[in-house]
């Protein structure tokens, strides 16, 4: 009986640690998605992405052709939004792309010890 209780407590503790690790990883992904690396001039976004996404989903304004206009790019899907719009608040609260609701970063799979492969998940 005591062994069963100890085993259940150990399993619950391991699940709690895994939940904490997952939450910490999600927080790290969100902070990276809001970092300077995801702010780029509109002119540097991919040409095919610009053709598909002509206006910001937040303010509904077309993107300017000015080379200095900054947009926030979601790394996993490539969608972007005016840096001055409220994309950061959306990302902080929902932790997804405001347009497609996908993940902020491509998922990774660990293969062996210390190796990771980025796998794009639609």
TrEMBL record:
UniProt superkingdom? Eukaryota
Q: Record's InterPro entries?
A: ATL71-like (IPR045899), Znf_RING (IPR001841), Znf_RING/FYVE/PHD (IPR013083)
| Organism of this sequence | Lolium multiflorum (Italian ryegrass)
Which Pfam family, any one of them, does this sequence belong to? Answer: zf-RING_2
What's this protein's name?
RING-type domain-containing protein
Q: Which UniProt keywords apply?
A: Metal-binding, Signal, Zinc, Zinc-finger
PROSITE patterns membership: ZF_RING_2
Q: Where is the RING-type domain?
A: 56-101
Citing just one GO molecular function, the answer is:
zinc ion binding
Gene3D superfamilies given for it?
A: Zinc/RING finger domain, C3HC4 (zinc finger)
The secretion signal range is 1-15
